[in-house]
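Components:
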Amino acid sequence: MKNYQVVLLKGDGIGPEIVREAVKVLDKTAQKFRFGVTYTDALLGGAAIDQTGVPLPKETVELCNQADAVLLGAVGGPKWETLPGNLRPEAGLLGIRSAMGLFANLRPAKIFAPLRASSPLRGDIIGEDLDILVVRELTGGIYFGERGRREVNGQPAAYDTEQYTVPEIERIARVGFDSARKRGKKLCSVDKANVLEASRLWRETVIRISAEYPDVELSHMYVDNCAMQLVRNPKQFDVIVTNNIFGDILSDEASMISGSIGMLASASLGSGKNGLFEPIHGSAPDIAGQGIANPLATILSVSMLLRYSLEEPQAADAIEAAVAKVLDEGYRTPDIFTEGGKKVDTAQMGDLVAACI
Amino acid sequence: MKNYQVVLLKGDGIGPEIVREAVKVLDKTAQKFRFGVTYTDALLGGAAIDQTGVPLPKETVELCNQADAVLLGAVGGPKWETLPGNLRPEAGLLGIRSAMGLFANLRPAKIFAPLRASSPLRGDIIGEDLDILVVRELTGGIYFGERGRREVNGQPAAYDTEQYTVPEIERIARVGFDSARKRGKKLCSVDKANVLEASRLWRETVIRISAEYPDVELSHMYVDNCAMQLVRNPKQFDVIVTNNIFGDILSDEASMISGSIGMLASASLGSGKNGLFEPIHGSAPDIAGQGIANPLATILSVSMLLRYSLEEPQAADAIEAAVAKVLDEGYRTPDIFTEGGKKVDTAQMGDLVAACI
Ligand SMILES: CC(C)[C@H](C(=O)O)[C@@H](O)C(=O)O
Ligand SMILES: CC(C)[C@H](C(=O)O)[C@@H](O)C(=O)O
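Structure:
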């Protein structure tokens, strides 16, 4: 029997409660599909700051790099917001992405049929369903370029550097094309090539790589137009590939359009199989500890973990099916509750999904 | 009788047709409110490239800088898209903003009641009306920072620099606060201070300037969250102030949410009264020359021109009222036409508005 090493980064706020339910579901899935999982807890974000003084202890990096996969709850909260930038929970998140070499962030934005009415878009615009995958470059660009303060014409100034090398663009472009190949075969590369030099290099490189993927239809869009098109006609998109900062903005916009933000998972991948999986929602400190958080995005992150890192596609499918079934049966945590639903809490939702595996 | 000098940059695509109608309306307004307008044509964008080889001839800069105000149609089109970056129509647009020192871009995103149904958002989300003003910094940041190609670790790379000095942030912050003071007294400053150094300086500076505006309620939001909130609950916003690139993205998203993109005007202002006024939509080369373009955004740009540069607020109000009346009466160009409306072409729409002045 295979045994997998999974590191849990429970993090802050609702992190621990939602990871608990995700583990419940993963255990049940392991039992059913006959593999073992060994869990190791490690510290990240505010929890790490409180216990060790830094948001990303060395030990966490080592444990994560030795694991088969990493499951993250959420990091951050008002408690740590006044700390200097490099000591904030976010720095831990950026640090672990970089230390694990996770250059590709996959963020599916899709509508769960029973929750269709909660999309802020008009019904005729979202139609029967919506399924966009945003592939965001995660370890380059303005997030990791040189930055600082300096004097410019005798005035205090601050700067950041957007920078991409050709190999960085090539590898994320390939993730985009490969993902599109497995889905609707349409890739939209988003940049600001009419202004930015890094975007011009991005576009040239994506076009060059496209020769390897004659079966995928490539288009290009400026980021400002993409922000509009996501609202005007999101169904035109299959896979979007873009840089770190544009991906940050556009993937959040795309998730909100789905109206299912408490339901959306994400995968951060590198060149090997190991990856980091997390819900796209935040640590929600306002409801932490009340047992009312929605664990489904974290449970669906486990499904992505099984698919991408552990390569257990049947187990991954089983989790998705279980979540769909529980939603179909009307069970809802408070964040997605509407008239006529059956209201459940965090642990009940975890139990219900586990029972459907 | 006062006489104003207005430069017309008709530009490309539908630019000349829509500027023609805007001039019609401005002439009628001048007659009614007893002032004179002298027009001078100048070249910008593709039209300038075709006639002079560059997108921004020196003469255009001189004429614009001597004017009381500048009215722009739209620039760009597929014809010039393969030219090198600095010779494209967009370079002319960035160049004239910079040459005229137009550091503040005001982009109102509002819903025109009779067009409410064309917002892509659910009716209960947009409610009775929506009126957001995005104040975008326009002559700094990554648009104008150092950029180029270089080698990084032996690999070809490209870079751009996001940079802001304190005085650049101070002056745009003041435009934001002043605008909020005249409206709903709420200013939301948007940045990515959890990652970018220029954003941290931005936030510090905005907070410092806020002491001058105790009557304006200041809040801060990360750009990714703002992209979500514009879709989830746009009514929470009054004035948004942000940097050049975030403003580019968010103002386009905000306009699309209004569903009235063919209707939205913008003003670019500097430290004096002279400004550049233009519709936010593009040059629409696909429908150019057919006489079916919607001239209302350009006509409303004339209203902003009267308000901000010529300081003729009554004339500005008269144009807004005339546009509202024509819409109320059911007249629609094809882009905003719906069942039951009265379809008119570009020139008829101009005539109708002029007749209502
Ligand atoms: C917390 C923040 C640094 C992070 C980012 O910008 O990458 C977050 O917004 C995300 O998208 O995961
Ligand atoms: C054409 C382009 C350079 C321009 C910009 O990015 O500023 C446009 O998108 C705008 O918003 O006016």
